[in-house]
Write a structure and sequence with these properties.
The protein has no helices and 20 strands. By secondary structure, it is mainly beta. The protein has one domain. It has a 6-stranded mixed sheet with strand order 19-18-17-11-14-20, with no helix packed on it. A 5-stranded mixed sheet has the order 1-8-7-3-4, with no helix packed on it. The two termini are about 25 Å apart.
């Protein structure tokens, strides 16, 4: 078991370019167009239902906290993303406006969440949808909560340690189920969990720790991408998202050792990637 990771729309009026790094389109159908990118959105700001606009067009409406959207195919290019409190756009003042660059052939999740000190912000993460070995799954943990550094444990043993907002960590793990929890870094003080997560073979699983420690509403949300089996002609089947509440027994991660980290360049092919975001 190797470790480390992250848990990670801001009241910012200025736009700033944010590149959604290109994850290798492994497992894609041979005729898949490469001038588009798969983009998901995660809403991790408690107590705020929002509408999301891209270049003035409504992308999402009545988007509730703890929700992860299915991946959507977007043309490569630059998008002016605006987030409004539900029913306030597009003529009102956005709670967040940010310029996001979508690159060809990428797979990314844009997360609206709180910073470590409780301020709304937007972070874009690259999703690793490359193949995994037979009998394995991929696990990524993203710290997007208003909370201090944390450790993620499996069976009481730390797997990812000293994770800070808005970082992430990734490992190739044995497929299966394990009981896990999130504790304050270096302690046994449980912040979220314990709960179980089933990691199926050939999937890439993202766990978001979100919410606010001060407001006592820390929770988990999961996002799963299918089709990473190391079999010929497999086709990436997209993803799914689900919210997991504090101390829920619904879902949580199965963990295992990951051998050696591989440096991330344009493509994400790592067996373990530390602190990677875009």
């Amino acid at each position: 078991m190797t470790s480390r990771t992250p848990l990670a729309i801001a009241a910012s009026a200025g736009a700033c370019a944010l590149a959604l790094g290109a994850a290798a389109p492994v497992m894609a159908a041979p005729d898949k167009a490469q001038d588009t990118s798969m983009v998901s959105v995660f809403h991790g700001i408690p107590g705020m239902t929002v509408d999301v606009y891209a270049n003035g067009d409504e992308l999402l409406s009545d988007f509730e906290p703890g929700t992860v959207t299915e991946p959507q195919s977007l043309d490569a290019g630059t998008y002016d993303i605006q987030v409004f409190e539900a029913g306030q756009g597009p003529d009102g003042t956005p709670a967040l406006e940010k310029e996001v660059k979508v690159t060809e052939g990428g797979n990314a999740t844009v997360a609206a969440h709180l910073s470590a000190d409780g301020k709304p912000r937007l972070t874009a993460f690259t999703n690793d949808v490359s193949q995994v070995d037979a009998g394995e799954a991929r696990l990524t943990v993203r710290h997007v909560a208003a909370a201090p550094a944390v450790d993620v444990r499996a069976g009481g043993q730390p797997v990812f340690t000293d994770l800070t907002n808005p970082d992430e960590d990734t490992a190739a793990v044995d497929a299966g189920t394990v009981n896990a929890d999130v504790v304050l870094s270096g302690t046994d003080t449980v912040a979220i969990g314990p709960a179980d997560l089933n990691l199926d073979e050939g999937t890439s699983n993202v766990v978001y720790a979100w919410g606010s420690a001060e407001d006592k509403n820390l929770a988990l949300a999961t996002q799963t991408f299918n089709g990473m089996e190391s079999t010929p002609n497999a086709v990436h089947a997209g993803g799914s998202g689900a919210a997991v509440t504090p101390n829920s027994s619904e879902q949580w991660p199965a963990w295992a050792a990951a051998a050696g980290a591989v440096t991330v360049t344009g493509f994400l092919v790592a067996r373990r990637v530390s602190g990677r975001r875009v």
